[in-house]
Amino acid sequence: MKRDKPKYKQIIDAAVIAIAENGYHQAQVSKIAKQAGIADGTIYLYFKNKEDILISVFEEKMGVFIENLQEIIKNGESSTEKLSRMIENHFTVLANDRHLATVTQLELRQSSKQLRLKINSVLKEYLKLLDEILIEGMVSGEFNPNMDVRIARQMVFGTIDETITTWVMNEYRYDLIATAPKVTQLLLNGIKN
Amino acid sequence: MKRDKPKYKQIIDAAVIAIAENGYHQAQVSKIAKQAGIADGTIYLYFKNKEDILISVFEEKMGVFIENLQEIIKNGESSTEKLSRMIENHFTVLANDRHLATVTQLELRQSSKQLRLKINSVLKEYLKLLDEILIEGMVSGEFNPNMDVRIARQMVFGTIDETITTWVMNEYRYDLIATAPKVTQLLLNGIKN
Amino acid sequence: MKRDKPKYKQIIDAAVIAIAENGYHQAQVSKIAKQAGIADGTIYLYFKNKEDILISVFEEKMGVFIENLQEIIKNGESSTEKLSRMIENHFTVLANDRHLATVTQLELRQSSKQLRLKINSVLKEYLKLLDEILIEGMVSGEFNPNMDVRIARQMVFGTIDETITTWVMNEYRYDLIATAPKVTQLLLNGIKN
Amino acid sequence: MKRDKPKYKQIIDAAVIAIAENGYHQAQVSKIAKQAGIADGTIYLYFKNKEDILISVFEEKMGVFIENLQEIIKNGESSTEKLSRMIENHFTVLANDRHLATVTQLELRQSSKQLRLKINSVLKEYLKLLDEILIEGMVSGEFNPNMDVRIARQMVFGTIDETITTWVMNEYRYDLIATAPKVTQLLLNGIKN
DNA sequence: AATGAATGAGCATTCATTCAT
DNA sequence: AATGAATGAATGCTCATTCAT
């Protein structure tokens, strides 16, 4: 399996750094290769093309969010707590990796519509877990059982996304993690029963 | 004033169509000119360069949102009503111009970080008006006076944005305007006193 | 006759200034028109095309040199004196019109080979007069009767040209006219009997 | 070192031919690449941009003149002989490479003022060596010790340049090398003691 | 497995000239 | 005679990908 080879992750990490430091359009394959300490051609032994690198970046990194969220769902007591811990986790991971935050919130969005559609399908798995939490809460009576799940999900994710993007655009000037409880509170107000 | 000349708006509209139909990176100046029914060179009598066209597209179209919102703020009775009508207006304008919706929600985001920073400064004016509504509501007691305005704003705008983007990505399959009341309800729940 | 109309000379002079101030490649027709205080299109009532302006600039200005030289030939006593006064005149005219000097020595040389061939044919009339002086001197015994006239002419003109070009490239830093006697002396040494 | 790689010289030579055959403004990068038998992009592995090719053409080719002249200075017996051999060499090199002669005497002069300034700084080295010969001759008493070196240099170089340019403009119709002794004789007359 | 030199398609912009007014 | 808005052809350069070594 290619993704178990050491150079695979090496290239992924190099791509995140190259994109964060140079911007999406200035992160040429040659720069990623240089950052990874390998030759340009070697990239193509591990990735089909440049787009494949970028999708893989998203898959690999999103994987962390998904694994964490599965853990949270498994261990959480209530839906409210799960949602709360999901937001906290999302903020924490990105606050602790500003390169990654820049890449996911700003740079990767400059990619072609086609690439973003693929990224979206990766994202869907994460949103499905979010839907699980919401539905569970509606069933248990913690959340408003009459609300439209899709819209609730869009509110939760849209708010998280906008909050982090603003933080990145403001050049990380304030403590992102500290805002998590307030964000959580507003969102819970919106959907609670 | 150049923006009062008929060809100015003609080019803006041609750009929206060309970008919506071909995608951001495939909307060459020659395509925009052809769509506008003029020669390539004529573009440059009205715009400094291609980026200038794109910024102007955003300014012109965002201008509609801002003017509408100012009207809403002037005429609305309560903050609740103003927020409700803002969301309704935002959804209605884009639901009625799918080309524009595609351009603002998907295509223009692929532009360079520099262009997006300029777009953001145009956006700021809109967000300032949103802040006005929120603060007024907090003062009047309609909205929770203890909430963090910035986070509330990010929730409102993030939710609107995510909702419309999802709609566009789903290829306008459902009635966007019909979802406005539900979106409004969830958001109001979140911020009401 | 078009060249008797006031706008004809007005455009010629505007062209010299526009070229001197902006450089050959940055002296667009629109700049020349603006400098002349007329509309772009008006240029084409007096000149066939841009090349025609530039040739005319050269013709008109070279005309001064030719008239002066004819006068010098008519009034001069000896060939030596005539050559001396020719060099003096050439230096004086250009030292007194730095715009013109820049245009003839630097800017006009960037024109296409084709244009420079035409310029050369204008120049020929001037060089013919120079040949007259040289041949007369050879016949009279002032100059070496065995020398090759063409080479002597190339030496005289090449030296004049190089001297002025160097002066222009050195940004007129020294007194060009003051060098005329030394230049004349060297050249006369070379060709005298 | 890039200039030791075979493709470097290959491109330089292709540029000389492409410019000589098509003219400066019609010598597009694609034509130079085609002439060199390589892809357009390959040019940019060896040169920063098109201007860099042209400067390099001049440097490389002027280098031959400079090296030859250094050799001549080293081996020549008298200043008179050195000057004589310098002129002979200058004529011979260009008479034997008409492409190069066309490029240096006609085409390269159409380049932008900026490029010509760079070309001039290359030329300066050659002129410095000429100055060396002149000064040496003035010290040894072969040349007039009272003459102005700058003007003498301008006469020598201006004459050489004008002679060759005229020959090129006359489409190489006569034997350039055969005129060298006459040119030399006239110049020596001008500067000898 | 790894290299890195070579490839070649693709596009924003300028400006001399025209011509309807 | 004069205007000036409109035209449209023409080109240097980048960079993802390949493939001989």
UniProtKB/TrEMBL annotation, chains A, B, C, D:
PROSITE patterns: HTH_TETR_2
Organism for this UniProt entry: Ureibacillus endophyticus
Domain HTH tetR-type: 5-65
GO molecular function terms attached to this record: DNA binding
InterPro entries hit by this protein: Homeodomain-like_sf, HTH-type_Tx_Regulator, HTH_TetR, Tet_transcr_reg_TetR-rel_C_sf, Tscrpt_reg_YsiA_C
Keyword Hydrolase attributed: no
One Pfam family in the UniProt entry: TetR_N
DNA-binding region: 28-47
Keywords: DNA-binding
SUPFAM superfamilies: Homeodomain-like, Tetracyclin repressor-like, C-terminal domain
Entry keyword Magnesium: no
Name of the protein in its database record: TetR/AcrR family transcriptional regulator
